[in-house]
Every structure is written in structure tokens, then in C-alpha cells.
Amino acid sequence: MKMISEFNDHDHIEGQFLLGSISKGVNANGGSYFSVELRDASGQITAKKWDATLQDEEIFVAGNVISIVGETNKYRDALQLKILSAEVVPLEEIDVDRFVKAPPVSKEELMSKFNNYVNSIKNEDCKKLLNYMIKKFDDKIYSYPAAVSIHHEYSSGLLMHSITMADIAAYLCKIYDANYDLLITGCLLHDLGKIIELEGPIVYKYSLEGKLLGHISIMVAEIRKAADELKLTSEVPLLLEHMVLSHHGQPDFGSPVMPCTKEALLLSLIDNLDSKMVVVNKAIADVEPGNFSNKLFPLDNRAFYKPKE
Amino acid sequence: MKMISEFNDHDHIEGQFLLGSISKGVNANGGSYFSVELRDASGQITAKKWDATLQDEEIFVAGNVISIVGETNKYRDALQLKILSAEVVPLEEIDVDRFVKAPPVSKEELMSKFNNYVNSIKNEDCKKLLNYMIKKFDDKIYSYPAAVSIHHEYSSGLLMHSITMADIAAYLCKIYDANYDLLITGCLLHDLGKIIELEGPIVYKYSLEGKLLGHISIMVAEIRKAADELKLTSEVPLLLEHMVLSHHGQPDFGSPVMPCTKEALLLSLIDNLDSKMVVVNKAIADVEPGNFSNKLFPLDNRAFYKPKE
Amino acid sequence: MKMISEFNDHDHIEGQFLLGSISKGVNANGGSYFSVELRDASGQITAKKWDATLQDEEIFVAGNVISIVGETNKYRDALQLKILSAEVVPLEEIDVDRFVKAPPVSKEELMSKFNNYVNSIKNEDCKKLLNYMIKKFDDKIYSYPAAVSIHHEYSSGLLMHSITMADIAAYLCKIYDANYDLLITGCLLHDLGKIIELEGPIVYKYSLEGKLLGHISIMVAEIRKAADELKLTSEVPLLLEHMVLSHHGQPDFGSPVMPCTKEALLLSLIDNLDSKMVVVNKAIADVEPGNFSNKLFPLDNRAFYKPKE
Amino acid sequence: MKMISEFNDHDHIEGQFLLGSISKGVNANGGSYFSVELRDASGQITAKKWDATLQDEEIFVAGNVISIVGETNKYRDALQLKILSAEVVPLEEIDVDRFVKAPPVSKEELMSKFNNYVNSIKNEDCKKLLNYMIKKFDDKIYSYPAAVSIHHEYSSGLLMHSITMADIAAYLCKIYDANYDLLITGCLLHDLGKIIELEGPIVYKYSLEGKLLGHISIMVAEIRKAADELKLTSEVPLLLEHMVLSHHGQPDFGSPVMPCTKEALLLSLIDNLDSKMVVVNKAIADVEPGNFSNKLFPLDNRAFYKPKE
Amino acid sequence: MKMISEFNDHDHIEGQFLLGSISKGVNANGGSYFSVELRDASGQITAKKWDATLQDEEIFVAGNVISIVGETNKYRDALQLKILSAEVVPLEEIDVDRFVKAPPVSKEELMSKFNNYVNSIKNEDCKKLLNYMIKKFDDKIYSYPAAVSIHHEYSSGLLMHSITMADIAAYLCKIYDANYDLLITGCLLHDLGKIIELEGPIVYKYSLEGKLLGHISIMVAEIRKAADELKLTSEVPLLLEHMVLSHHGQPDFGSPVMPCTKEALLLSLIDNLDSKMVVVNKAIADVEPGNFSNKLFPLDNRAFYKPKE
Amino acid sequence: MKMISEFNDHDHIEGQFLLGSISKGVNANGGSYFSVELRDASGQITAKKWDATLQDEEIFVAGNVISIVGETNKYRDALQLKILSAEVVPLEEIDVDRFVKAPPVSKEELMSKFNNYVNSIKNEDCKKLLNYMIKKFDDKIYSYPAAVSIHHEYSSGLLMHSITMADIAAYLCKIYDANYDLLITGCLLHDLGKIIELEGPIVYKYSLEGKLLGHISIMVAEIRKAADELKLTSEVPLLLEHMVLSHHGQPDFGSPVMPCTKEALLLSLIDNLDSKMVVVNKAIADVEPGNFSNKLFPLDNRAFYKPKE
Questions:
Q1: Which residues of A touch E28 (CB under 8 A)?
Q2: pLDDT value at D236 more than 50
């Protein structure tokens, strides 16, 4: 099956696509039609479903993956797709590989970095907790995105964020004389609750647990459960629970307790730093020098300027 | 050993007392002395330790229980105690019964009400979780105070609060058509995390876990652990975790998630109502009609007026 | 005249309807049309007014009651109404009974409960003030809604809210040893200012006084005026003015003074509790178990989950 | 009786004085004494009452006016007063003239300005309301202070504030084309509720009504009552009620409704401006050029700089 | 070239117009068209550009000045313009006089008032700084608007605001005994940074400097630079820098430092007063007595009532 | 002259000391005395000045450096100093070396790191601005503290903070692909305004400019002035002004403009990170493992826990 980037004029198209934004219009004859955005990992295209029926209302819902038969055509120099028929693809039949971009760093490299960090930990309790979680969450650690995403994101977003944080943490540990084992373990564990908070496989949305508890409370409870099962008796589990609980830095951002250890503070500061820098870098990637980005919601709705040189 | 309310002039006193507020003064000859408030369950008395030594600095600390030899005397019509010698009583030797007031309702009555509520629950998972926690926290459910308290409070404060809430919840259940089993279970469980958050036995202070996690996150994790061990598969544990997590109503008050079920909302509203009413009732108890109470910190520092009639 | 729930295909329709949401579209020929929602107490229906004229702009305004001649037809299995002619019904000609749902509890029962509460009051000044207000506001006490409402609400919303509050107050009075007469009088009077704040008869909007003063300040002044005319000399009028003034609990919610008596605090807590519970109960009434409601503006825009069981 | 500014060394003193700040000390022999600040309109002096008795505790309370017998002496070049006996002066026996400073503008001049403004009003309803209030509050309009004051302030503070505001309002009326009659009436009436909110005669404190309602709600109700008695039917009373209600500008400052007419907005802006300028002018009056004032609580705790030139 | 107010039916139109709001529609045949608002100093008119091309996307951008050929016609009794061709007018070819309304006070009068104020200053350093800025900003002082404006505003908005403030300041100087020279200089200089913050010529938008620094920081730096070049050694430049820096009154409104001198406070209060009064006066100008204005964003989204009489 | 750490019992002491906290007491005979803390770079000691005179009031002021004659003695095993005579040391006669601790990293090393960073910059305008500032502020760059400090801090605090930030920035530059020259220049320049904001030499307090403008606005103006003198025409000065202006991250913390370039955001995040980590590290330095630090004001008044291991 062709990917969107490979479409030409007058192609006959069959395949799975993700529905992005959707708008509904009215024809001259009073009937209605859908104008939608279709996506796969290679790009996106505008498509029309004319003469929308009542069933179409349930098919054309943003976030659905649909299976389509259609034809391409040119409209004002841009390629469009006319949808002839469409149906929703059941979760288990989704061809995930069509939708997930390869991350900028290969999965192998990420896994190798992750394992290196795990192996660098000397504290026994940190190590046990890490291995417990690796076993529990398994492959999802490598495949989860870092946030709710209506568009197909890189897979491994969660892992990339954790590893970048570990990279920074390893450097700052020396400057501020912090406990390496605690800090690195915190970087690797702090967001794993998202694996329960979100559910996929293509479009990640909040699960019921995610909505009622949030990934922070989920992960604190998971560490407590693990420490209990592993019969850990040191302060380490409590310190890690505190780090996870406080890593959003303040109550308004989801942390009922603010950081009260050096390592918890450092973790929250690095998390804050990386989260913001990733948003900015993504936002200005396609901005021409000398111009501003769109307004960025997670950065107080500011637009960012990309200097001329 | 005599209780404070039984002291007369020129008594020789030996016994354990709780140190309340403390101030240090300087003698005319440049030496220093302590003027302290001693307490037991029967009342309080001002006491002086003249010629304070360096060791006294470590003994006369608010919250300590000290063992004293002294003599009473009258100063301006009020009985005072002159402390001749004093030493700190180790935790395990404290005679708890000297310090804890009997609650206004007898322990037997409270326990009977508590058990009646447990028995009124029909949902199996609610029942299992309640029994798990009763077994785990055992006698502490009946003996814990409702809050950090520098002065000797009623024992059973935690239990009284939970039962008053259950009384109100049972009534409101009918008005608002809420789930009785969930709501009553929530009332009985919601604050049990305080048994880990605080540590006694006389003066209850925050434990390390209390400071780093808080009773809400602790209790959510305990329910999760219990549900796991009990192999519960219904939505009930999640709904109860959500109720506990959100019962302070908003992030600034310690709930990272706000109530999102009818029962969670009702629980948080009843908790808010009872907490405030208890503060006001206590504050105006000794106020003369036609006057204002002291300013109440938990009520935005307002003073409350007690009407003339 | 047929109610909306009685419409069939190809009916000829004449009658009064309330205009709900309105949208304007453009025809293929460049003319414009209105697509509106018509309502009466029995339900709602989508209607079209094709070839909108300039006069139609003034007729098709949300909240107007219009008199219509039209015909029903089916569009995609749903009944629609084609409006042939429409004109605005003057306030005095509105057939109120077509728009107001019977409350879930009958008016007679509500009036009987209200009178029972009035009769249960023993304090003379409370009684006089209540009777003064009953005389002044008369039938409106029984017919007013509890809030601005763009859609046809139950009549008696104001009364139902007051009586539910009195029910709860009577129960809590005993638990917290509050003054029954003050508290019940407060429940019955606290929102009567809405009779001046809002004006109807079908669609209740803010009156000029409502916008410039608000129901709280209006009612405080009305009590003061009444107490003056009735030559009351006890503290009671002042205590009731304070209860009314502070019943929204804080400045940001419209109370310039916060509750400073036990009864004022209890009134504000019960008002807060009932207001929120009513919103939630209404919002989840039609939600399928296992799903979330819409986002609720008065509850910080949260969606509420209806448990599966 | 001598005023404080007339004291010399070794004078025998008898007379009434206001108690300012008070501190209690302990003698070398263990007895206690009071060191207090005595005030009258001419100044202040430190005084000691040695060998304080239990009764003295009730006499030496800040804000009391006490009648004293004593003797002056010098201590480190400063005159002190040794109090031999003291008793509280009942309210009705206070010699008010000993405590109240003449305002910087004479009472006659203030009254004449006030009357001129009243006479300049053309609108009949404004005029009637003004005259109603003048009759009701009478001489207190001329004698009340502008705020709670623990120290003897100028009398007429309330009137001076109102007249300065009227002066500014008359000027701004022309610039912004506002309604002169409404605005000037608003300036003259807006704070009259303080006559009920505060009670004197020397030390003005909040009355019970002041605490439970506040001067804004009191005055709104008074205007409503007056308009009712005067049978006014124009919009004027409502507009004035709105102006009074909103003149603190926002909910957090005591106005449940924000200004929604041009005149209400202008009134609140002038009130804000005059209140702040008066605080600053008073605070820097005695500051040497090139220095900062104390921190000013009503101005966000800022200190103000007085330029060198 | 005809102004919009002079258009008649069936006119052939050629000329420059400012593009106001823009919406894009779809034809019955699937093509798209623009419906736009054209403006000049005399008024505004709705215009259509049918069969929109890809190039039109870049021409029909709100804020562009476009040169048009078109024809008028009537649609439902209102005059419309059918655009036959359009192109963007380069900045340097814009005929500014077509777009800028004459201010209500003539430019000559404003300049004369401005010069009078400058001449009334006696302090040498104030005078030098004023003259420096007059030379630097020159004619722009007379032509700049007071704010970002998507619609053609009066020219001289900046100057009118400064002069109104000076008028009020001169009056209040006497009442509050403030330094005339500092205060008037502050009024005249405080907003000149807007000449760098905004850029025109017709539609004033934020410049890059405006976005990255804001007019307050820009002007503080300009005064500092000027004082340096002029070798001023008195406190005057610092006092003026402080006045400019603090004139928005608080951090949330753009002043990192709050007013800490009498003149800085007065300047900020007058600025606040004039800014708000101008908004209200403009908003209610066309409102019928007895009605409310639109909601005003800079006034907390309140609607203002215009009294009946 | 002996340093405090070298004092023995019965020493005769002459020398300069910094006055830390001060309290005043009353003797048994009614006279007063000062109990003060004296400091030098080696430590601190409690000292008494008995029989305080009126002149002593002006000498014993916290922050003064005083020249003393006195004698040591032991009081309860601790060395005390009895002050026989004391006078204030004029600024120009202060022996600065007695009060300033050597920084943990040698001044030479810091200067070498600073110069290395300056030399690593390739952008010409960055380089010119840096050299301009180095020339202007000269030696103060190396000697200034990082904050107002009532106690003798390390000298070079300002420089150490800047260099640590540069160290972190150089590392993060690569991770987030930021402009090295801008970012490093920003790190080195961002706080230089403190050299004008604070004034020493021993006890650094806010200067008048510091109070009225703050170091951020001062530095923005200094860069603007420099860029003007250096006739720089690139975007670089504007970008650096923006970085300095926004480096506190939000209006409430002193930045009227929030970061809107990648480098400005990164600078503010690193500044925030380093400022907090330095506070925590200092606070827990002397805390025993398993205990909490004092409450830290700049960290929302939280106490920090130092883990047991």
C-alpha cells in the first residue's frame, strides 16, 4: 500500500489512514460532506467525502484509523483525495508501522543507552526497582509517546525524554554533588506511569485510570507496591516515591508535594527544562529565520522568535 | 500521682507532664530561667525553672514529656509550680493515660458505630478493602488524632471525624441518589493515611513519610496495594483511590486531581463542611455570647461572632 | 396546539416556541437561511427558515418566543420543521404553560414543605421577616427558577433549592448544635433577591438591578428595609443580613464579607454543596454508565464519570 | 489640666490620656511593671507603672482613655512619667477636646465647601437623597475619621476625603464628560456608611455591624431605604447604589460588583487615587530628602523615596 | 478617488483601502471566495472577491492596504463592492491621508499645548531630556497612535493621551503638593517608547523590538542613554527612569518595579485613570441611553451601562 | 590583629568587626545593654556592651563595621567578648581582607575560566559587548557577591554563579542545538547589573538605583548604551537585551517580558536551576543525614531532607 508521500495524480488508493482535523460542509443541494485531513507516517493530505450519510458521522471522527478506497485528483495545484468508501479499522487490525515515525535516534541506540544507564547504577534497591519496572512495563517503555498526541508522534517519545534527562542529570550530578544512583533512577522511572495513564495504540488518549488518578499518583503507588513485594527496607523507595510525586514542581502542575530533597529538586528542574526546550525546538523547526513561531500553549501562549542569523 | 487539677498550695509534686509553650528570661543577676506551661489531661499550670543550665536547654523543649520534682506556691492568687529537677521521659516510658482526654463520645460507642457502618456495606469489594485496612491499621484507627496537635487532644479524633462524615453521608445519599457503599467506604477510609503520616504517641508530628508524601498519596498507594493483593477486578478500587486522591477538593489543598465522580465530589464537600464546623465549634465554645473568638487560621484568619442570644 | 413531542411527519404546525441556539447559513444562490432549535416543555426540534429576510434578523434571536406556521418533514430519518412564517410573541401573550416543565415534586408539596418550615420557626423576629417577604414576593417565591436559564427549566427551581437546603440544615443543626431558627430562616430567605435580580417570564435574564447590584446586595437591603418597617430591635436582622451577604463564601464569588457566625458558615457550606450536587446530578442523568459527562463550567470545567455499576 | 507638650521635669500631673502601645516587663525582684505610651492631641510621652497589680491588667489596655495621677522625671535626657494611680475613664466622661487635633482645614471651611457642593446639585433625586443623609447622620459627617485609627487622628477625616474627591471629580467631569450631579453626590455619599461601620469617640474601632456587613453594604441598604421612604422613582437611586457598591473597584477590595457606569468607574478611580496619595503624603511628611519612608502596608508594603531636591 | 462614504450604487471604484476582517467561503460549485471589510477614514463597506485564486490568499490578509478596481451594487438594501482586481500597496506608496482620521482636537492645538507644557518646565535637566527626545522622535510624537490598532485610529492618539494626563497632573500637583516639573515631564515622556515599540504607517503592529522588550524598557534605556550623552548628574534622570519603569503600576501589567516616589505613583494613577476612561467613553459613545455597551476586554470584560437620562 | 577564631580566654582584643544580629536588654538596675554578634571572615562571637549610652544606639547597628577594645571571658563554657569601647569605622578605613572569605575556587581560576569563555566567543558583536562591559565594570566583576548579604559572603559570588551557568550552558547548547555565542555571552552578562544595583564594600545593600530600577532594567539600558556607542547594527544587542530582560522568567519575578527566543528561555531555565541548587546545597551542608534543613525562604519556605545514606 502506498504511503501519502508517494501519491500521484489520478492514483487509485486503498489503505489505512489516521483521521486528523475534520470539518463538515453543506453542498449547494443541501446535502452535507466531510473535508478531512488524512495522515500516515509519511505526511498528510486533504480528502473529501461527498454526500455524507448518517453512518459517516460515526466513521469520520478525529483520531479514528479508517480503511479507505479513493482516488487522487488535483485541485488548485494541490493533490486531493476523493474518498469513495471508508470504514473504521478495529484496534487489533491497525497496521501500526504505517503511522509511527522512526525516532530521530534509532530504537536500538535508545535501548542501548537506557541499558547502559541501568547498568551504571550501583545502589542495590535502585537497581531492583528498575528491573522490576522493566519487567512489568516491558516493551511499552520503548514504544510509548511522551504525551497525549492526536497526531502520529515518534514512537519512543517517553524513552527519549527519559534518556535526555539522564544525560543532563549525569552532568549536573557532578556540579551539584548529587546522588547519581537516585537521580538517574528517578530520570528513568519518573514518567513510566504514563504507560498506564495513556492508551494507544496509534492515537494516545487518557485511560480511565489516567483521568481519575494521573500518571504521578499511579507511579507512586506502583513503586510502593514494588518495594513491598521486593521487601526493600532502605529509605530508597520513599525517596524515589517523593521524587516521582514532586517532579512537576508544584500543586498546580500536579505535584501535591513540592521537592524536598536535593535529588527531587534537581529532577523536577531538569524535567521542566527538557519539556520546555523540546516544545520550543519543535515549534521553531520550520520557522524561517527572522520570524515568530505560532503561539505555544505549554509556554504561556508565547510565540518564539527565530533570530535572523 | 496527682493530676494538675488536683494541685493545692505548698504541694510537693512528682510526675510526668507535657511541655506546652516555653519562654526564657534573664534574672537580675544575669542568669537565665525558663517559664513554661505544663499540661496533663486535667489542665495546665505555669511553672518556673530558675537558674537554667546548659542541659536544661535540651530538656525544656515544647512537646517533650518531662518527669518533674517540684513545689507549688501562689503568685498573685494563681498557683505556680517551682521546678526543682526535670528530665525527659523516653517515649516508651510515657504514661499515656495521663495525657489523653476521653473523647466526648465513648470509645465503645465509636467502635460500635464504626462496625455498624462496616456491616451496612453490601458491595463485596468495598467490604474486603475495609476489612483489609482494619486488620492493617488495627487499634490505631481508634486512637489516632485528626491532625497534628501540639497539645493533648481527644484520642479518637480521626475516628470521630470519619463517623460524623458517615452520618452526614448516609443522610445525603438519599437526597442526591448517591452510591451508599462507595460513599460510606470513602468516609471510613479517606483519612486513614494519617496513621502513617503522623506519629505519636502524645504529641503527634509529621513522620518522614508524612512530610515527603502526605496522607493522601500514602492512602492511594495503600488501596492499590490492597486491591492487588486481594485480586479485586471491579472498578471499585479505582473509584475509591480517586475519592481519596481528590477529597481535599483542589490542587492547592493537596489533591492533584479534582473530584470527577458524584461520590468523590460529595465526599470532598462533606469533608470540607465537617472540618470547618469542628474548628468553629471548638473556637467559640468558651466565647461569651456577644463576643468574637480568636482569629482562626484554617478559616482565613477570621474571628467568629457568637450571637447574644 | 400540538407539543413538539407529538409531531409527526407532514404535520401542519401552528404555535408558540422558544428559540434555542441559532445558526445562519448561505445558500448556493447566495441567499441566507436560519437553522434554529425550537423548544417547548415537551422537547426540541431542528427547524429551517429558508430565504431569510432583513426582518428575520430581528425575529430569530435566541431566547425569543415566536409564533410559527410551518410543516414537518423527514431529513435523514430525523423530523425537521420548515418554517413558513414567524413572528415574535409579545411578553404578555406568551402561553407560559407551554414552556415550563412541572417540577419533579409538585408545587403543592413544595408549598406545603415551605409553610411547614415557616411554621416551625419559633423566634418572633425570624417569623416576622419571613412573613414580610412572603407577602412582598408572593407567588414569585413559588415560580422563580434558581438561575439565569436560556432553556425552559423547571419552575420552582428557586423554591426547590431553598427547601433542599432547609432539609439538610435541619439535619446538620443537631450535629453541630446550630441555631435552628436562624439557619432555617436563612435557607428560606437567602436567594429571594433573585426575584429582583432576574426577570422572566420564560427566559430569565438579569434585570438592570440584577446587573448593577446582584441578588445578594439586593436582599441585604430588603431585609434592612423590612427590619426598619417592622421596628425589629434584636440582633436577628443583622445576623440574617450577614448570612445572606456572606452565603457565597468569598469575595470572588460575590460575598464581600465572609461568614463570621456559625450559622452563616453552615448556610454557605450547604449552599455550596447543594449547588454543586444539583449540577452534577443533572449532568450525568443521561450519561451511559462507564462514560463521562460533558465538561461542567460551574465545576471548573471538569467532566464527571458515571461508574459502570 | 496640662497637655503633654507643656510637661516639665518634676511636674505633678493629673488628667486624661489615651493609651497607645503597651509593653510589660519584669523587675529584678520578679514583680512586673507596665511601660506605656500616653497620648493627647499635643504629643506623647513614655510612662511607667511599677509594681503592676492584677487590676492594672484591665486598666492598661491599648486604646483605653485613663485618668492618671503621676510625676514627671528625666531619664537619659528624656522626660518620663511615673504613674502613681490610674483608672479607666468611662466613655461618657471622656474630654474629647483633649484628644482630637484640629484638622489642617478648619471645620467651618469644610462645612462651607460641603454645603456648596450640595447646593450645586441640580438633579432633584440626588438632592433629596443628600439631604436625607445629612439629616440622618448629622454632625457625625463632620466629626468622623476616614478609617479605623488607634491614634488620635484629625477629626473630619471622612469629610476631608469626600471633599478632596469632589474637587477632583468636578475637574474630571469636564474632561470626560461625566454626569456632574451623580458624580458629586457619589463623592459626598460613598463613605458615609463608615459612620455606622466605626464607633468612637476617641479610638475608632469596627462596630458589630461594621464587622458583619462593612460600610459598603450598609450604605447601599441605607440609600435603598431612603429612596423607598422618599418614594423616588427615577434610575438615580439605583445608579447611586451601584456607585457606592462598586467604589472599591473589585471583589477582593470589598466591592462585590465592579463599576459598570462611567460615573461609578470614575468614582472608584478617584477614591483609589486619593486614598493612596494621602497615605504617601503622610508617610513622607517627616522623611528627610534623600531617604525612604517606612514600608507602607496599604501600598503593598513599599517604602517611598523622597528625592533630594 | 472617492472615499467610502461617497459611494453610490453602480459606481466604478478605483483606489486604496485597508483590509479589516476577512472571511472565506465556498461557492456552490466548490470554488472559494473572500468576503472582506474595506475601510478608509470615512467609513467601511463589505466587499466580495469571487473565484479566489492562490495569489489572492496572500493579498487578502487583514491589515494590508490594497489597491482595488471594483463595482458597487446593492444587496438587501445595503451597498456592497464587487472586487474585480486587487493588489497589495507597498508601504511607501500608501496614501496615508486616506486612512487617518483628523483627531477631535486639531494637530496645531495639540502641538501648541505640548509646547506650552515643555516651556512651563523650569528644571534644567527635565528640560534638556524633553528637548533631546523631541529632537530624536520628532514628528512621530505628533503622529503616533496610543496603541496597537487594527483599524485606522485618530492620528495623534499618543499625544492626546499625554496631554490629557498633563492636564490632570497639573491640577493634582497642587492638591497633593507634588513636583510639577517631574510630573509633567513624566506625562510627556512616559509612553514615547511606543514610537519604537510599534510600527506603522497605517496599521500599527508591534515591531521586533516592541515584542522582545516592550515600550517601557525601551524608554528607560533611551532616557539613560540621553542622560549619559547630556552628562546629567542630578537625580532627575533616575527619578524619570523610575517613573517610566513603574507607570503601569504592577509587574503583571509590565512594570517590574512598582512606584516608589510620590510622582511615580501619581503618574501611574493618572495613566490608569485616563486609559480606562478613554475606553469607556469610546465604548458608550454610540450606545443608546438605557442600554449596555459591548463587553470591554481592557475592563475585565465588563459591559457598561449608559443611564437613561 | 587577631581573628575571632584565634581568641582565647582573657585576651585583650583590639580590631575591626562586623556587627551581625543585635538585641538590647535591660539590667536589674534599669539600665540597658547590648548583646551583639561580632563577625569576621574566621567566625563569630557573642559580645556584650554593658551600660549602653545614647551614642551607643548609633554605633550598634546591624551591618556596621566597628572598631573595638575589649576583653574575652568564658560564660558557661563559651567564649564571650566584653566590649569596653567601640566606634564606627568609616567606609574608606575598613580593612576588607578581614571580612571576606576566599571563595572555594581561587580567584585566579575563576578569572581564567571567565577569560576562556570570553575567548571562545566567535561572534564579533558579542565579543565587543563583553569587552566593553569588562572594561566598564572591571575588577568588580571578580569581587561582587551574588546577592544582598548581611553576612560576609564569599567574594566572587557573582562570578561563580555566571561561570557555573556558562558550564551548564556549554553542555546544553549541544543537546538543544542553541547558539553558543549568544548563550555564553548571556550567561556572562546577565547579572552584571548587580554591580550597580548593590553597593558594598562589606555588607552589600541595595543602592538607590537598585531600589528604583533593579539590576535587570539597569543592565538592559547598559547594553543598549554600549551597542549605541559601539555602533553595532546586527540583531545581537537586541537579542541580548531580551535575554537579560527575560531571564527571571516571569513578571512576578522581575522580568516584564517572558523569554521568547530559544537562548533566552535556556538562559532563564539555567539561572533558575543554578539559583535554587546553590540555595539547597548551602542549606543542607551542615545538616546531619536523616534530618531536615531550616525552612528556605527562596524555595517557598520548604525544609529540605538530607537522606540517611
A1: 27-28
A2: yes
Q: CA-nearest residue of chain B to A216?
A: B256
Q: pLDDT-based confidence at C200, cuts 50/70/90?
A: confident
Cα dihedral sign for A132, A134, A139, A143? positive
Of residues F292, F297, F254, the one with CA closest to residue F279: F297
Q: Cell match 474630654: residue?
A: D95
- What is the average per-residue pLDDT within C202-207? 84
How does strand B12-26 pair with strand A302-306?
A: unpaired
Q: What is the pLDDT of residue B76?
A: 67
Q: Percentage of residues in chain D with pLDDT exceeding 90?
A: 60
| Residue of E220, E228, E252 lying closest to F217 (CB–CB) | E220
Percent of the residues in chain D that have a pLDDT greater than 70, as a whole number: 94
Query: Which residue is associated with the grid cell 512621530?
Result: E140
Beta C78-88 vs C43-49: how paired, if at all? parallel
Which chain B residues touch F25 with a CB distance below 8 Å? 26
| Cβ–Cβ below 8 Å for A225 and B228 | yes
**Interchain contact, B212 vs F305, CB within 8 Å:** yes
Q: Does B91 touch chain F (CB under 8 A)?
A: no
Q: Which residue of C has its CA nearest to D240?
A: C212
Cβ-defined contact of E269 to D266 (cutoff 8 Å): no
Chain D nearest-CA residue for F28: D28
Chain D residues whose CB is inside 8 A of the F29 CB are 28
**pTM assigned to the model:** 0.89
* Res. E286: pLDDT tops 90: no
Q: Are the Cβ atoms of F211 and D292 closer than 8 angstroms? A: yes
Tell me if chain B has a CB within 8 Å of the CB of D26. yes
Q: Chain F: nearest CA to B153, how far in angstroms?
A: 26
Query: Is residue A273 pLDDT above 60, yes or no?
Result: yes
Q: Is D292 in CB contact (< 8 Å) with chain F?
A: yes
- Model confidence at E106, pLDDT cuts 50, 70, 90, reads confident
Chain C residues touching residue D216 (CB < 8 angstroms)? 256
**Is residue D65 within 8 Å of residue D17, measured between CB atoms?**
yes
Cα–Cα dist D67/D65, whole Å: 7
Give the gap in angstroms from C-alpha E53 to the nearest C-alpha of chain F: 35
Give the pLDDT score at A108: 85
Stated as kind and residue range, the H or E segment containing C263 is: helix C262-284
Complex ipTM: 0.86
Which pLDDT belongs to residue D272? 97
Average pLDDT, chain B: 89
Q: Which of E265, E231, E229 is nearest to E247 (CA)?
A: E265
DSSP labels for chain F?
---GGG--TT-EEEEEEEEEEEEEEE-TTS-EEEEEEEEETTEEEEEEE-S--TTHHHH--TT-EEEEEEEEEEETTEEEEEEEEEEEPPGGG--GGGT-BPPSS-HHHHHHHHHHHHHH---HHHHHHHHHHHHHHTTHHHH--SS-BSSPPBTTHHHHHHHHHHHHHHHHHHHHT--HHHHHHHHHHTTTTHHHHEE-SSSBEE-HHHHHTHHHHHHHHHHHHHHHHTT--SSHHHHHHHHHHHTT-SGGGT-SS---BHHHHHHHHHHHHHHHHHHHHHHHTTPPTTEEEEEEGGGTTEEEEE---
The phi, psi pair for E42, rounded to 5°, reads -90, -15
By the CB < 8 Å criterion, does F28 face chain D? yes
Q: Nearest residue of E to residue F213 by CA position?
A: E242
CB B307, CB C265: distance < 8 Å: no
Please compute the mean of the pLDDT values over residues B281-287 and round it to a whole number: 90
> Residue B77: is its pLDDT beyond 80?
no
Partner residue opposite E235 with nearest CB, options D172, D261, D309: D309
Chains interfacing with D (3 or more CB pairs < 8 Å): B, C, E, F
